[in-house]
Structures are given as structure tokens and as C-alpha cells.
Design a protein that fits this description.
Layout lengths: L4 E3 L18 H4 L12 E6 L5 E8 L3 E7 L7 H4 L7 H7 L2 E7 L15 H20 L4 E6 L1 H11 L5 E7 L9 H8 L2 H7 L4 E3 L8 H10 L12 H9 L11 H6 L6 E3 H13 L22 E6 L8 H14 L4 E6 L6 H4 L3 H4 L1 H9 L3
Parallel strand pairs: 4-5, 4-6, 6-7, 7-10, 10-11
Antiparallel strand pairs: 1-2, 2-3, 3-5, 8-9
Helix pairs in contact: 4-5, 6-11, 7-11
Length: about 375
């Protein structure tokens, strides 16, 4: 399942990369990046059982962990390693003695697989077992910890439910087995937007904007200017695309100017099959397989591990009710001693990790939960 191969950055395929940025991407290379305080990483490419090549970026800071950081859907490892804040999350964990592994699973726009069609079941069934096995094999650790965000969190919980081994504790950020969408996303689920878009022959959407856009792309961006933008209207085409594809992903007030200007580096292509699976789960009110044959709440014994649920108080993309429901159900069925839940005041969704003050307000909360099991 995993060959544990270590590569150099020169060996990586010519796509938008988590580290360093793709040299062919003028958006990513037009600025000077600050050196990360967690040093030069080791890049490990590995294969899943179904033959998909994934990537782990390792920052070896100490004997704590190892901890796998898993990002949300349609974002790469740059969602964590972005250099526009004073301290990003891998730097913080590195400084606190952690062996940090940032995961690009098959939905990452940094990988060729990002533009292919797959379900959440595929991520849960294949990507997490391969990633955990790779980290254990290379690090020599008996078990790992996982800090997963958004769809990364949902699929991690699904993987545990399917029997994922080697995880001694986890932090599940924002999306759980009972995702509850905010108003705009409820609207999308209600009108079957994903099904309609794919029925038109569109298999992927992207946040990437060409330097010389076609007339169709220009028309698309003009149309998005009329799209409902929630409580925080933004004129940037990138932010409009994020709003259309996902909803209210971040609180603009929590981003510094540099992050707002360069956040697009972490985003990219997203496939419609996965978006349709998310919509199917929203309609069902809890995690089910894409084909409807498996209900992830039928057997939750695999989730009998310490899990801390993390939610932004002001999350309008996936509202806090969702993590409260999963926390309550798992506590009742597996025992309350395994679970805790933490609502971060004033924060929304992705700004828990890219916010200008996240190192002060959020990272200590997560690190304290990880420390409990080191």
C-alpha cells in the first residue's frame, strides 16, 4: 500500500505544489516567501491500495506525535503551510516539539488526482489507511495522531468507522458525521445543484483564474458578482468563486491583507462527484456512502478513540449544531470519556487555521488536546 519513498522537490510533477510552489505558476512565484521556521521538509510520496499517488510533507520538530494534518476539500497542504501569517500551524506544532506530517490526499489540487472523480468513501477507505501506514512505517511510531479539517475531518471519522487502525487520538475540525450546512449550502442541497451541474457535462469546478481569461470565464466571473455573498461581500473573483463552490469558508475580518491576497494558492480544482456526495450526506442528515448502501452510524465502535471536536462559533458554512450532534451520539454509544468538544468564540471555518490571530486564539486549544495523548 505504501512504499515510503522519499523524494526531493525536484522530482515532483509539474503542478501547483504544496511545497515549494510550482515554478510554472506565476501567481505563486510572483512574491517573495518568508522562510518557514519549521525548516526544509521531507517529501514522501506513497500509493493507496487503489493506485492513487498521495503526498506527505514532513516537518520533524521533536518526539511528540507524529501528527497528520489533513486539510479541507479542494485545498492543498498550503492551507496549513501558507506563509502569510506570522506563525502557521505546522510552525506552531514544530516549535512545540511535534513531528508534523501535512497530508495531500486525493482531493488536493496539488496532485493529479485532484481533477479526477471520486467519492468521500474513497478517501476514507483508501487514503487514510495508506497515510497512517506510511507515517508509522517511516517514523517508527506505533500510532499517530490526526488533526483533520472540514471534509478531511468527515472522511477521517468515516475511516475510523470503517476500522482504521493506528490512530491513538484525533481532532475533528468543523465537519463531523452529522454535517449541518448554513443557509446558502442548504439552498444548494435543496436544488440539487451538484446533480444539475454535472448533468450539464461539467465534471470539475475551480477557483483558479487565468491571467488571460476566455470570454466564457469572464462571463462566469461577471455572473458570480450577482451571486449571494452572505454577510461579507467581497469583490475579488477568487472569493466569489469560493463562495459559489463551497459557501462562506472564512471570515474576512480574521484575515490579514497578505493572506487575503494569496489564499488562492491553497485552492484549486474540485470534482463534482465529491460535491454530490457531500450534498447526499446533507440530505440524509448524517454520513452515508455515495451508493446509499452503507450508513456510517450503524457501527461506531471504530470511533472509540479520544476525539476532540472543534468548531468555530460563527461558522456559517457548517454550523456548530453538527459537531454537537456527533459529540452527543458518540458519547452515548461509546462512552463520554473518549470525547470533548470545543467551540472557538468569534471564529468561523477556515480562519481557525489561516486567521491572523489563530496562533493566539486557536492553535493552543488544539495543541492542548494533542498534548493530552503524548
Amino acid at each position: 500500500m505504501s512504499d515510503g519513498e522519499t523524494t526531493t522537490t525536484d522530482d515532483l510533477p509539474p503542478r501547483r505544489e504544496a511545497w515549494p510552489p510550482d515554478a510554472g505558476d506565476t501567481t505563486a512565484t510572483a512574491r517573495v516567501r518568508r522562510p518557514l521556521r519549521c525548516g526544509e521538509p521531507a517529501i514522501h510520496e506513497f500509493s493507496t491500495e487503489d493506485g492513487v499517488t498521495l503526498r506527505l510533507t514532513r516537518f520533524e520538530g521533536g518526539t511528540k506525535g507524529p501528527v497528520i494534518l489533513s486539510p479541507g476539500f479542494g485545498t492543498s497542504a498550503l492551507a496549513y503551510t501558507i506563509d502569510t501569517t506570522d506563525t502557521n500551524f505546522p510552525e506552531y506544532l514544530h516549535e512545540h516539539g511535534y513531528d508534523v506530517w501535512v497530508l495531500d490526499y486525493r482531493a488536493s489540487p496539488a496532485l493529479p488526482s485532484g481533477g479526477t472523480q471520486f467519492t468521500l468513501d474513497d478517501i476514507a477507505r483508501y487514503d487514510y489507511p495508506a497515510a497512517v501506514e506510511t507515517v508509522r512505517e517511516i517514523s517508527g511510531a506505533d500510532s499517530v495522531q490526526i488533526m483533520a479539517h472540514c471534509v478531511g475531518s468527515l472522511t477521517m471519522l468515516m475511516a475510523l468507522g470503517l476500522g482504521l487502525q493506528g490512530v491513538r487520538s484525533a481532532v475533528a475540525s468543523q465537519v463531523t458525521l452529522h454535517p449541518r450546512a448554513g443557509t446558502l449550502n442548504e439552498l444548494r442541497a435543496g436544488i440539487y445543484a451538484g446533480d444539475l451541474i454535472q448533468a450539464l457535462g461539467i465534471d470539475t469546478l475551480t477557483t483558479e483564474i487565468d491571467d488571460d481569461p476566455s470570454w466564457l470565464e469572464t462571463l462566469y466571473d461577471k455572473a458570480l458578482a450577482l451571486y449571494p455573498s452572505g454577510d461579507e461581500p467581497c469583490e475579488r473573483p477568487f472569493c466569489r468563486r469560493v463562495m459559489f463552490m463551497y459557501g462562506e469558508v472564512y471570515e474576512h475580518d480574521h484575515l490579514n491583507e497578505a493572506t487575503h491576497d494569496h489564499l488562492e494558492e491553497a485552492f484549486g480544482v474540485a470534482n463534482m462527484t465529491t460535491l454530490r456526495h457531500i450534498t447526499k450526506i446533507l440530505r440524509a442528515d448524517h454520513a452515508i456512502s455515495m451508493d446509499g448502501a452503507h450508513d456510517y452510524l450503524d457501527d461506531v465502535t471504530g470511533l472509540r478513540v479520544p476525539i476532540a471536536f472543534l468548531h468555530g462559533e460563527n461558522n456559517r458554512l457548517f454550523v456548530p449544531e453538527g459537531s454537537a450532534l456527533t459529540f452527543r451520539e458518540l458519547s452515548e454509544r461509546n462512552g463520554p470519556e473518549y470525547y470533548s468538544r470545543h467551540v472557538v468564540p468569534g471564529y468561523a471555518h477556515m480562519d481557525l487555521f489561516i486567521g491572523q490571530d489563530a496562533a493566539r486564539d486557536v492553535y493552543p486549544v488544539i495543541t492542548a488536546q494533542l498534548d493530552t495523548h503524548n
